[in-house]
Amino acid sequence: MTRLFTVLLTSLGSKVVVALTGLGLAGFVVFHMLGNLQVFEGSESLNTYAAFLRELPILLWSARVGLLLIAVLHVGLTIRLAIHNRRARPVPYAVREYRKASMASRTMALTGGLLLIFIIFHLLHFTAGVVDASFSDRLDPRGHRDVYGKVIHAFQNPWFVVLYLAAQGLLGLHLSHGLSSSLQTLGLEHPLLNRLFRAAGPLVAGIVVLGNAAIILAIALGVLRA
Amino acid sequence: MNFTLKVWRQRGAGERGRFVIYPARDVSPAMSFLEMLDVLNQQLVLKGQEPVAFESDCREGICGSCSLVINGIPHGPDRGVATCQLYMRRFTEGTTITIEPWRAKAFPIIRDLVVDRGALDRVMQAGGYISSNTGGAVDGNTILIGKDRAESAMDAASCISCGACVAACKNASAMLFVAAKVSHLALLPQGEPERATRAKALMKAMDREGFGSCGNQYECEAVCPKSISVHFIAAFNREFLRATVAEPGPLTEIPSDPHAEFR
Amino acid sequence: MIALDSKVPSGPLETKWDRHRFTEKLVSPNNKQHIKIIVVGTGLAGASAASTLGQLGYHVDCFCFHDSPRRAHSIAAQGGINAAKNYQDDGDSVARLFYDTIKGGDFRSREANVYRLAQVSTQIIDQCVALGVPFAREYGGQLANRSFGGVQVSRTFYCRGQTGQQLLLGAYSALCWQIERGQVAMHPRTEMLDLIVIDGHARGIVARDLVSGKIAVHTAQAVVLATGGYSNIFYLSTNATGSNVTATYRAWKQGAAFANPCFTQIHPTAIPPSEEHQAKLTLMSESLRNDGRIWVPKEASDRRSPDQIPEAERDYFLERRYPRFGNLVPRDVASRAVKAICDEGRGVGPVGHGVYLDFSDVIAREGLGLVRERYGNLFDMYQRITGEDAYEVPMRIYPAPHYTMGGLWVDYNLMSTIPGLFVVGEANFADHGANRLGASSLMQGLADGYFILPYTIGHYLATTKNGPISHDHAEARIAADRVTMRTTKLLQGNGRRTAASFHRALGRIMWNACGMARHRAGLKHALQTIPPLRHDFWREIAVPGSGESFNQELEYAGRVADFLEFAELLCHDALHREESCGAHFREEHQTVDGEPVRDDKGFAHVAAWEHVPNGAPILYKEPLTFEFIKPAMRSYQ
Question: Which CATH number applies to C474-607?
Answer without folding.
Answer: 1.20.58.100
